[in-house]
Write a sequence for this structure.
């Protein structure tokens, strides 16, 4: 001990300090849209692109949230609200830690998304509406959920038996039935460069 | 668009990929001990040292958890258990994102800490017992909580009216009444180097 010249700092490391270490700012990319619209695919593709460019990024989606932090929550309305609230709070921690965090969840209600937005500085919350006609989503049906929902096996399924509230004023709209994934990723990265986050 | 040569990767970025980008492994430093033992002070000092050395680190403590993610939880036993469960799950996300995350919470029960440990690979969970006699903690009483607890104003206060279960087999023990903070920080950093995490 004693040879690494450690000195105690009473102050905590700030978000700005972390931005300087990472050489980019942090923000949340909040991907919202119907099941099958391509949110998680796009979020992971953006994350991979950011990683390859040397930026610090991370993805929150059903794969790492549903069976972990939110494993105690059902799909009932009050639990869906709590689901989004927790994801918003965890996204805030990641932004504070200096990451560009991509959160990919249906998040169908404007009010819930607005509550998450209010956790952040204005320029830190970037709402991305992953827009795709429901018949295309239903045709893709990657997890077979629309088939089950049409049979009435899944109650309150967004777009079928529960509403999806289209974002009022999203920062970015990506139409996944019109763009290739690479083009969609480029649109997001271009936005981050334009806003001087990268 | 089209000038940044982005190519879509179907695979998600892995934890190992992130280790390579950061040039260190990730883990959780789980600081447990009585109120006033110095957990949060030490966690922040370790975090600052790691930051200055260029490593990616972050702190989870009462300041950023209690009023955010866990603002819906009380201090009742079932809520204290849920408090620790959620912090464990968030720590896991940070470890997956490539961070050395320092979690500083009393976490008085061996069973709760064991559940958190089981979320991780064996070498990823580093339990640090922040050891300090209760009379020293009570003497420090930085938030005036012991005074209130002795008056009976705080029910189930750890060490007074609720037990603190000493860790069975912690990876590190730091005696904050015997070491200077710089020495404590060095001991933690030395452990991380010895285990090839740094």
């Amino acid at each position: 001990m004693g040879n690494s010249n450690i000195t105690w700092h009473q102050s905590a490391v700030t978000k700005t300090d972390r931005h300087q270490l990472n050489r980019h700012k942090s923000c949340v990319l909040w991907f919202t849209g119907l099941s099958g619209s391509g949110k998680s695919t796009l979020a992971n593709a953006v994350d991979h692109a950011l990683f390859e460019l040397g930026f610090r990024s991370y993805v929150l989606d059903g794969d790492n949230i549903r069976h972990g932090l939110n494993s105690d929550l059902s799909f009932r309305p009050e639990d869906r609200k709590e689901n989004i609230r927790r994801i918003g709070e965890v996204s805030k921690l990641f932004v504070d830690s200096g990451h560009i965090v991509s959160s990919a969840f249906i998040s169908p209600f404007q009010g819930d998304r607005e509550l998450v937005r209010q956790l952040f500085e204005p320029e830190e919350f970037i709402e991305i509406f992953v827009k795709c006609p429901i018949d295309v989503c239903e045709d893709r049906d990657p997890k077979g959920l629309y088939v089950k929902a049409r049979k009435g096996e899944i109650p309150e399924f967004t777009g079928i038996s529960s509403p999806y509230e289209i974002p009022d004023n999203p920062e970015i709209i990506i139409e996944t039935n019109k763009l290739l994934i690479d083009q969609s990723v480029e649109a997001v990265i271009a936005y981050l460069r334009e806003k001087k986050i990268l």
Residues 77-96 of chain B form the longest helix (20 residues). The beta strands of chain B are 27-32, 57-61, 100-104, 125-131, 172-175. Chain B touches chain A through 51 residues (CB under 8 Å). The helical segments of chain B are 15-22, 39-52, 62-69, 77-96, 110-117, 134-140, 145-150, 181-194.
